[in-house]
Structure formats: C-alpha cells, structure tokens
Design brief:
The complex is a heterodimer of chains A (about 130) and B (about 1050). Chain A has about 130 residues and is an alpha/beta fold. In chain A, about 35% of the residues lie in helices and about 20% in strands. In chain A, the strands form 2 sheets. Chain A has a 5-stranded parallel β-sheet with strand order 2-1-3-6-7, sandwiched between helices. In chain B, the strands form 8 sheets. Chain B has a 7-stranded parallel β-sheet with strand order 3-4-2-1-7-8-9, sandwiched between helices. The termini of chain B are far apart. Chain B is elongated, with a radius of gyration of 60 Å. The chains are: A alpha/beta (about 130), B alpha/beta (about 1050).
Chain lengths: ~130, ~1050
C-alpha cells in the first residue's frame, strides 16, 4: 500500500466555476488536486516544484494554449487528459492520440479516466 | 387682256443644277406684263435657305413671291417654291406640302407639271431648264397631252450647264419648242396672246367638221394614216394646240400651213399620238390580252421554264409596266412560277432612263385602277413608284427594231403604236422580223390603228378588233439576212407607183398588139440585173441560152451557149460601165447540129429607172442563115493561105484557153460567193449572241444593284463586328481574370493581360505552345485535364493553391467550341479565390471558437447552478438567484455581440447591469475603458453579484440608498490596471456578516482566478464598500 498519500492530479482550467467542480469531484474520488491554476505559466512553475501522477488540461487558457504544458508532461511521462470545447482535430499532430474530453464534461467520466491514467503503466521504455 | 384674266395661262418652270443661271436668262427675256403667271420649281436642297426670289427679282419687273399654301395665282407674278416643300395646284390655288427631310421627293417638277396640266389644260405651259436628271420629262408629257405648250432649253452662248434634263424631255418627243432661254419669254407671251384671242372665237360646228375632213385627208395622203375615226373632241384639241404652237390665226391658215409644210404634218401626227403610251391605254384591248393571251403564256410552264416578252419602242415605260402588271396578277395565282422576262427596248436612251426609274406623277396613272395602284405602286412623296415585284420583271435596253438584230424565242411581242410611225416599207421589214422573233404560236399585240397588213401568211388573227395575232407555224421563209434599208426618194406608196397607169379604153388593144409583135417579130431578148441575173425572158431565147448543169440558175453568163459567153460578157460589162448601148456583131454560136449561126448581140440599159437598181435589155438577132463549119471557116476561100490558117488556128487556141480561164474564174467566184454567204450567216449568229449579251448586260446591272445592296449590308455587319471586336478587346484588357485560349495543339490563340502574373508570357507568344512557357504556378495535372476536356467536351475545374504567395486559384478548363459545336481548343481560366479561401479558414476558426465558448459556458452554467443550489434555502430562492446570474451573463454576451465580440465599454457594462435600479440613485464615473470579452464577462458577473446583494440587503434595498461607482486606470509593472470601487451609502445599517454568501465568494473568485486581480470588501455600517483591481492586459 502506498500509505495514506493520495495520488496528485494537476488541474489546468481558466474558469474558476469549472475548476471548482473538477476539484471537488476529484477530491471525492480520492485524489489530491494540485492547483487548480488558470494560467499556463503558473502551471509550468507548479510542475517544477510539485510531482504529480496525472493532469487535467483545459486547452484554451485565456487565449493561450496549454500544449506547452502537455509537451512537458509527456516528456516527464505523466499521463494527462485534455478538456476542450474544441474538436479533437484541434490537437497538434504529436498530441493527437492523447485522450480528450468534450465539455461540458461528465465529472464521473473524468474521474474514471483519471483512474485509468493513474493505474495504466506508461507506454514506452520503463525507467530504470 | 381683261377678258382672259380669269383663265390666263400659267407657266411651270422646272430647273435643277445650273438652274439659277438659266432662270436669270429666262426672266431677262420675259416682256413686261405678259399676262402669264410663273411658278418656279427647283431641286434645291431642303436644308438651304434659298436666295432665289431675290435673284429672280433682279432680272424682272414682275412681282416675285415665295409660294404659299392656298395662295391664289395671279398673272404677272412669279411664284418660287420654297426649298422644303412639294408644290401642286388646284383650282388656281397653290397647294404646298411640307417635304419631310428624310424622304426627299425626287421628281418635284414632274409632280407640279402634271398637277398644272390637270388644273389648267391647254392654259398651261411647261419650261424645262438646265438640270442633271430626267425630272420634267413625264411632266411635259402630261402638259402636252392636255393641250398645253412645252418648252425646253437648248444650248446657246450661256448654258444649259447641265443638259440632260431638257434633253431627256426633247428626245422623248414631248417638247414643242427647244429654244435658248432668252427667247422663251417672247414665245410664251405670244402663246398667251393667242389663247386670249382664241377664247373669243366661237368656232362654228360646221366649220370644224369641214376643216377636220381636210386635215384628215392631208394626213391620210401624206402619212397613210386615217384619223377620221378619232374622237372629235380630242382631235380638235390637238389641232387647236398645233394652231397655238404655229400661231395660226384660224383653221384655214393652219390647213394652208399643213399643205405647204410636211414637218407640220409630222408634228400634228405626233401630237395626235401623244397619249397612246399611257398605262393600260385601250382598256378593252388590255382586258382581252389578260383573258386570252396571258394564261396561254403560262400554260404548261413550270418553274424551270421562262416566259419571254418583248416590248419594242417602249418609250417611257407605261406599256411595259402595264403588261408586267398583268403578268404579276396572273402569276400570283400560280404555284410554280416560270421565270418571266419582259425586254423593253427603245432607241431613246433618255426615255429608257425615265422608264427604268419606274416613278410616275399621279396625272399619268389615270388608266390604273385603284386596286392596281394599291397593289403595284408605292406612294413616295408626291409621285408613285412601281413596286419591286413588277420592276424586277422588266429589262430595259437601248435597241432599234430596224437596225439591230431582234430578240428570239419570244412568247409575246407587244408593239403598240410603233408601226404607225413607220412607212409601209419598214413595216414590211419589221413584221417578218417579229415573226422570226416569236416562237411558234407566240403572240403579237399591236396598236388599234395598226395591222399585220399583207403578212397574213405569217400571223393569224386571234382577236382582230383588239389587234391580237398569233404567229403561224411551219412557214418556210428565206433565211433572214441583216436588213439594209434603201432610201426611196419617192416615199409614200412606191409599190403602187410601179403599176402602169390605166388611162384610155384603146390601151388594151394596143397592149395586145404590142405583145403579139414582140412575140412574133422582135428579136429574142432577156432583161437582166446589174449582177447578170435574168428577171425576164422573151420567147425564142433557147437558141442562145441553154440550161446549165447543176442547180437551177438565172445567171445570164451561165445560161449563154458556148461561144456567146465571151462576147456577151465583154459587151455586158461595157454596157454596165458606160450605161450606153453596146453591140457585138457576127458572133458565131454553135447550134449543136454541126452548124454555126452568126449572132448580133445588143446590150442596152432599160430607160426610166429613177435611181432604182438599173436593168439591162440583152437582144439576140441572127445574121444570115446557119452556116456549116466549113462555110464559116472558109468565109472567104480566096484568101485561104497558110499564114491565115495558122493565125486562125492560134486565135482559136487562145480563145479556148481564155474560155477555160474564165471558167476557172467563175468557179472561184462561186466559191467566194458561198464563203460570203457563210460569213453572213456567221455574222448573223454573232449578232444574235451580241443581242443576248446586251440582254445579259441589263441583268448584270440589276445583279450589280443587288450586290451593292448586299455590300452595304455587309459593311454594316462589319461595323457591328468591329464594335463587338472592340468590346471584346476592352473586356480582355480590363478583366483581371487570367484566361488563355489554346488551340488543338495547345498553341496559344490569345490571352488576357492578367495571365502575365502566372506565366512568363509576352504578346509575341501567340502561336507558341503553352508547354514552352514557364509557369509561376505548379500545375502538375494541367495537361491531363486539358486532354480530358478535349476528349469529353466537358468543363474541368480544380482548386490549386500556391503556398509561396498563399494564393488560391480555381483552374477551370472549358472547351472552345466552333460554330459546329466541335471542340476546337480550350479556354483555361484561373479564378483567384484567395480571399474566399481565407474567409473559409476564418469561418472554420470562428465555428471552433463558438463551439468552445458555448460548451464552456454550459459548463460554467452547470457549475453556477450547483453552487447556487448549495447556497439557496428554498427552490424559489434558487430559481431567482440562478436565473438572475444567467441573465447577467446573457446581458454581458448581448453587449459583446453588439460590439462584434471585440471590446466593450466598461461604462456601458455598468449601466447595463444596474439598469433595473434607475440612474438617479447611482453615481457612475470613470475614464473610458475598453474591456476584452473575457474581462467583460467576468466583470459583468461581479457587477451582477454586487448589484443583487445591494438590492437585497444593501443600499438599493431602500429608496434613499445610493451607490457610487468609480474607477480609474493605472500603469503597473504588468501593464495597465483597473481600479474599480463600489461604495454604498444611505442604506440600512450593515453588520459585518460572519458567513460570506456564495455571491461574495463568486466575486472574489472571479476577480482573483479569472481576472487575475484582487477584491477587497469593507463592511462599513453606512454601507458596503468593495474595491476590485485587475490587469487590463493579459500577461
């Protein structure tokens, strides 16, 4: 057992009302929410200081795109899910196969998705 | 003169080119107060103000006025036609019609003359002066026909400058006096005087008929035409006219003049015949022609055949057109119409010119029924124009029925009132010519006072009364040789003069005696022509003449017995040359029975031949009894000697040689004669061809006219083409759409200038293959597409983009079709759709953005619903708070969409959110600030929460409460920031609430999380104070 420590999930969402909903849903599902943050720069800073097991990324952040953060997470082999009002085609080619949930999201489905991300081993060569 | 005032004569004067000079001369010659009125009609161009009245007034004392409509014509005045009108006259008053400028009347003189003729009759005179066409000719005819006087200008020292107008009238035979202009005035004055006097004369009926009988006798004797059947009134009008013209004071004087002057007889004769050429002259005859002849002409003829009609002596064309109208009327009922040709000929070229024009003044249309007028004439100005249907049938050409070879294979010859102008001898030549010209069974139509005379073996009468004849078939006639008319000095009745006069009763006895003496006792003789043809044999010529072998002949030299010929020939020649009696004595003739007969030959011209071909009497008389050869030879045996015998022998040999030479010569002569005859027949053929050529010439002329019309049409079309071409050129130059026209081999046919942006193309590249050119576009499938269009004839379209210039085109390849809808090439068009592509991309972005916003908003709405539900005590409170918040969002959206989702004004946002509370309780102040959409939405929510809170618990829940809203901007490190203050006062006392409601949390969160700023609250007793600060620019 990994003890009492709850898995940590980074949440990027620029609308506080939505961020509130996600936070309380994940909290109930047994996750510790890191953030939520409304700015991509703030998220990048947060990722350097705090280790997380998964992330929820809204794509459009105050006109900015969260792909920078996504690329960084992929490099760190941290699984994540996109939230967006945009269609899947809006994803850049290298992030095409990442999961994406259409807003308005079903919070229960989001929690199940995070469960999957956290429990599924990361593809690619295992880190020694 | 006062007596004649009511019917004084009126003189019409027609002038055209060169007319001003002629008019000057004319009026200089008019004596003062001539008792005449003058009306001057000219061809002046309608757009020229005429100075003619002033010019004329310089040369005459008569009153000169410009003619006006309804003006009464008065003597001793000159009326000048204004330049823009057509003039007529009725009951002594002028009638003016405005001429339309588009359709100028071409024959104003004819129109006025004929109306003058109708109005004034014999009190009219026409003067034709210098001019360049045939106007006036038909007018003078009308004047003359109704008894008026006609004059035309002939050359003297000054003019006419253009003679064709007067010459036309003169040569048509309608002019009484051809004079120089300055002599005309005097002639006209005499004419007026004459008329005035004759008005008083009340010629007794008896005197008239006596004079008439005398005149008729003179005409019959001198010209062989009997006018005794002529209508008395018409006849007298003509005679009276001639009396006026010749200025004979009474009928006796005129009869005297007729007796002494053969020219006057001719002139009267012409006057009597003047109107025989009118349209449908002799209606009954034309009706018969229509009933009997015309249908026969078309019987059994199909569209391939032709009907040929000849009208010799057509004059000014009325007879021709009358017949052509009859033909048209008949043809209109036919389905298959043969080609109809009406050859109209005359020796007078001027008359032909008038006839060709086919334009007649109304006065000459008397014989034309209203139906025919309507059908065949077009009223053009004041005159009537033959319609094309009739005109096209007629072919006019100059031709003399006497001199020129005739037309052939004709179906109808209409020769009315031409023969009466000819003497019997010419008639005798012309009628066989007509027979020759007509095809078998063809018709001949003569005038009422003409007949076929003695040629009843050539023509059979079809309707004798109306002079319709039919050519008999199978009449063998000697081949017709070109005619040469001999001049008979004894004109008149030469045939009858030849008959010996029968005088006394004893003559018969004497004649019998003379005949018997001649037969019994006179020497044998023959009468021969100058050429040696025997025209008369006496009895007993067989001893001197014998029938020669070969074709029968009347040649004296051929018939003469051997031995006679030599001496006969020499004697005959001598007699012909000397016109004296020549004798040859003791010529030995071989009697055929071994005996020789000595014969005396005498040749003597026949007396009293008066210039006709001379004839010669040849007498043969025997000298002594017949001799045996020996007796003859030994005429004198005493001198028989060797030398004499030798000489005689030699002489005989020489004679024989001479004889054979003569025979050779005669053979040669015979050959020459037959060659000559052949030549004559060749000549005849040539003349026939020439004739056909002349006829074709007329056809060619009409064809030429047609070609001219076609050419004019073509010119118009070319103009239209030029315009279209120029439009196309301008379209090419102005269009911004690059277009290339390629032919089947992909060679450039043409292109628009805009193509230069896409290809390295120069104007000189027309004709080069497109494949040779570098394109600035990559067009990988261009040639496959072109091939596809060639194969299928369908339009191909493809979008191409050019990433380097971010330009987008639609490449359209359409088939280039020729007039047969064959694909002759392709039209390649590059439509620039860059802006459309950009707009499409933009639209995609917008739709994605909209999707995002809607979905985000729904998510927010769900979140707000949950939060509101948690903080609400009852469902009613939830509903009110939730709907209030959604409406606040909606108002912000409304504001943004009004501003096109760009930026919205802060002041307006505040006013919108606080609108329900009225403006008098609010103080709103602050600089103009533009908010980005996201900021505006968040701030809108914040304002809604503040206002709702104030309305429920704060200053706005009481009427006296007030809210002051104040904001300012400040420059911070992260860009411009907004400092927004909300201060409530005069409301209920507010306690610092322990539990912050969702409203305040929403404000705090919106401000800190969404706006990246801060919110501070001050719960003062006098009212809530809130301070919200956030950056205006996104970091």
């Amino acid at each position: 057992m990994a003890g009492a420590r709850r898995p940590r999930v980074l949440v990027l969402e620029d609308e506080w009302v939505i961020a509130d909903q996600i936070e309380s849903a994940l909290d109930e599902a047994g996750y510790e929410v890191v953030g939520p943050v409304g700015r991509v720069d703030a998220a990048m800073t947060l990722m350097k200081s705090q280790a997380v097991e998964a992330a929820v990324l809204d794509i459009n952040m105050h006109g900015d795109r969260s792909f920078r953060a996504a690329v960084q997470l992929a490099r760190d082999k941290i699984p994540f899910v996109f939230l967006s009002g945009y269609a899947a085609t809006a994803l850049p080619p290298d992030l095409k196969d990442r999961p994406l949930m259409q807003k308005p999201i079903d919070l229960a489905a989001l929690c199940r998705c995070i469960d999957d991300l956290v429990t599924t081993p990361i593809k690619g060569p295992p880190a020694n | 003169m006062t007596k004649g005032r009511s019917i004084f004569p009126i003189v019409g004067i027609g002038a055209s080119a060169g007319g001003v000079e002629a008019l000057e001369g004319f009026f200089q010659g008019v004596p003062p107060a001539p008792g005449l009125a003058f009306i001057v009609v000219t061809h002046l161009s309608p757009d020229r103000e005429s100075l003619l009245p002033e010019i004329i007034a310089r040369y005459t004392d008569l009153g000169v006025v410009v003619a006006e409509d309804e003006a009464e014509v008065r003597p001793d005045f000159v009326y000048v036609l204004p330049s823009d009108a057509i003039i007529g006259i009725k009951a002594g008053r002028l009638e003016l019609q405005k001429a339309s400028s588009s359709r100028r009347e071409r024959k104003p003189i004819d129109i006025f003359f004929s109306s003058l003729a109708i109005d004034r009759g014999e009190h009219a005179a026409a003067v034709v002066l210098s001019g360049g066409d045939g106007d006036g000719t038909l007018g003078t005819k009308a004047i003359k026909e109704r008894g008026g006087l006609t004059l035309a200008q002939v050359a003297d020292g000054h003019g006419p400058r253009h003679a064709s107008m007067p010459d036309s009238a003169i040569s048509a035979g309608f002019i009484d006096f051809a004079l120089p202009v300055d002599q005309m005035g005097a002639k006209l004055a005499e004419f007026a005087l004459m008329l005035a006097e004759s008005n008083d004369d009340d010629v007794a009926q008896a005197a008239q008929s006596e004079a008439r009988a005398e005149v008729c006798a003179i005409l019959r004797n001198q010209l062989g035409h009997d006018f005794s059947g002529y209508k008395s009134k018409t006849f007298f009008r003509r005679v009276q006219r001639r009396m006026h013209v010749t200025q004979s004071p009474n009928q006796e004087a005129y009869v005297e003049r007729l007796k002494s002057d053969p020219k006057e007889v001719q002139a009267l004769f012409h006057d009597l015949l003047i109107n025989v050429t009118n349209f449908f002259r002799d209606v009954d005859a034309f009706d018969k022609l229509r009933e009997i002849v015309i249908p026969k002409l078309f019987e059994g003829r199909g569209a391939e055949d032709s009907v040929r009609v000849w009208v010799p002596g057509c004059s000014t064309g009325e007879e021709v057109y009358s017949i052509a109208m009859l033909l048209c009327e008949h043809m209109s009922a036919l389905t298959a119409r043969p080609r109809v040709q009406v050859f109209a000929t005359d020796i007078d070229e001027f008359g032909l010119g008038v006839a060709r024009a086919g334009r007649y003044p109304e006065a000459l249309l008397e014989g034309v029924s209203p139906e025919r007028r309507k059908r065949f004439f077009v009223s053009d100005g004041g005159s009537f124009l033959l319609c094309k249907e009739v005109r096209d049938l007629c072919i006019f050409s100059p031709h003399s029925v006497i001199r020129d070879p005739p037309y052939s294979r004709l179906d109808l010859i209409s020769c009315r009132n031409l023969l009466i102008y000819f003497g019997t001898d010419i008639q005798n030549l012309v009628l066989p010519t007509f027979h020759y010209s007509l095809r078998e069974g063809g018709y001949l139509f003569l005038g009422l006072s003409e007949s076929i005379g003695k040629f009843s073996e050539l023509f059979a009468a079809v309707d004798k009364k109306h002079r319709i004849y039919r050519s008999r078939e199978n009449v063998s006639l000697a081949p017709r040789l070109p005619m040469t008319i001999r001049n008979h000095p004894s004109a008149g009745l030469p045939g009858q003069n030849r008959r010996p006069p029968v005088s006394a009763p004893g003559a018969a006895l004497r004649q019998a005696l003379e005949t018997q003496v001649l037969e019994q006792f006179a020497p044998a003789h023959v009468l021969v022509t100058r050429e040696g043809d025997i025209v008369h044999f006496s009895t007993r010529t067989n001893r001197y003449l014998e029938l020669a072998p070969g074709a029968p002949t009347r040649q004296l030299m051929t018939l003469a017995r051997k031995g006679l010929r030599l001496d006969l020939r020499s004697a005959f020649r001598e007699a012909v040359e000397s016109s004296a009696r020549i004798s040859r004595n003791a010529v030995p003739v071989d009697g055929g029975d071994g005996h020789l007969q000595m014969v005396d030959i005498t040749v003597e011209p026949l007396a009293e031949r008066h210039g006709e071909d001379p004839l010669y009497i040849v007498l043969f008389s025997d000298r002594g009894p017949p001799l045996s050869v020996e007796e003859a030879r030994g005429g004198n045996p005493a001198v028989e000697s060797g030398a004499a015998l030798l000489l005689e022998q030699e002489l005989r040999d020489t004679k024989e040689r001479l004889q054979s030479l003569i025979e050779e010569y005669e053979t040669a002569l015979e050959e020459l004669r037959s060659s000559n005859e052949e030549l004559l027949s060749v000549n005849e053929e040539l003349q026939s061809s020439n004739e056909e050529l002349e006829a074709s010439k007329e056809e060619l002329q009409s064809l030429n006219e047609e070609l001219n019309t076609v050419n004019a049409e073509l010119t118009q079309k070319i103009d239209a083409l030029d315009r279209a071409n120029s439009d196309l050129h301008n379209l090419f130059e102005s269009t911004q759409i690059p277009t290339v026209f390629l032919d089947r081999n992909l060679k450039i046919r043409s292109f628009t200038p805009a193509v230069k942006d896409l290809f390295n193309i120069l104007p000189g590249d027309r004709g080069r293959p497109l494949t040779d050119l570098n394109s600035r576009l990559s067009l990988p499938r261009l040639f496959e597409d072109i091939r596809y269009v060639f194969e299928n004839g369908e339009i191909s379209e493809r979008e191409i983009s050019q990433p380097e210039t971010s330009k987008h085109y639609i490449l359209r390849i359409a088939p280039y079709l020729d007039s047969d809808r064959h694909v002759e090439g392709v039209v390649v068009t590059f439509l620039d759709v860059t802006r459309l592509a950009q707009a499409q991309a933009h639209q995609h972005t917008l739709i994605a953005e909209l999707n995002h916003r809607v979905k985000n908003m729904l998510m927010v709405a769900i979140g707000i619903a949950q939060q509101t539900y948690k903080s609400s005590g009852s469902p009613e409170a939830f509903l009110e708070a939730f709907i209030g918040r959604l409406q606040a969002m909606a108002r912000s959206y409304e504001l943004l969409s009004r501003e096109n989702w760009m930026e919205s004004s802060l002041a307006e946002l505040v006013r919108t959110e606080l609108a329900p509370f009225g403006s008098e309780r609010l103080t709103i102040e602050g600089p103009e600030v533009r908010l980005k959409p996201k900021l505006a939405l968040s701030l809108g929510m914040v304002l809604h929460e503040l206002a709702t809170n104030a309305g429920k618990y704060g200053a706005l829940s009481e009427p006296a409460g007030r809210v002051s809203i104040h904001w300012s901007t400040s420059a911070g490190s992260a860009g411009e920031g907004l400092d927004f203050q909300w201060t409530e006062s005069d409301g209920p006392t507010v306690a610092n609430s322990r539990k912050r409601g969702f409203g305040l949390r929403l404000i705090e969160k919106e401000t800190s999380y969404n706006l990246g700023g801060s919110a501070a609250f001050d719960f003062r007793p006098e009212g809530l104070g809130a301070r919200i600060a956030f950056p205006l620019e996104e970091s």
